[in-house]
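Problem: given the chain below (131 residues), write out its structure.
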Amino acid sequence: MKRHGILNSHISKVLSDLGHTDLIVIADAGLPIPSDVPRIDLALTLGVPSFSDVVSAVSNDMVVEQVILAIEIKENNEKTLRFMDETFSETEKKFVSHEAFKQLIKQAKVVIRTGEVTPYANCILQAGVIF
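Solution.
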C-alpha cells in the first residue's frame, strides 16, 4: 500500500501516465462529459467529495503548468475562484468561455467527476514537467 499521495488507483495511474501538456479535468457533478473521454466518477452525494478536496489531492501529486477555468466563475463562484488562486498562486491561469471549456474537455486524458454542486467548479489542469 502507498504511504503518501493519491490512493485511488485510477487517478494514480492517470497521473503517472501524463506527459508534458496533457490535460485532465476536475469537474463538478453537473458538467457534461463527452462519452469518448474516460471518466473517473468520485461523486458520492451532493457535495461529496468537494471540488476543493479533489483539486488539492491531485495538485499535490501533479506538476501543473497551466490552469484553465471558465470565465463565468469570476461572477458566479468567487469562493472557488479564490481557492484556485490560492492553490495555484504561481501557476498561469487562462480563462475561456464555458462553451469553449466544454470543447477543450474533448482533448482531456480523463475527467474526474466530484460531488461538487456549486456553479462553474471545474478546471482543466495542464501537465508540466519536473525538470
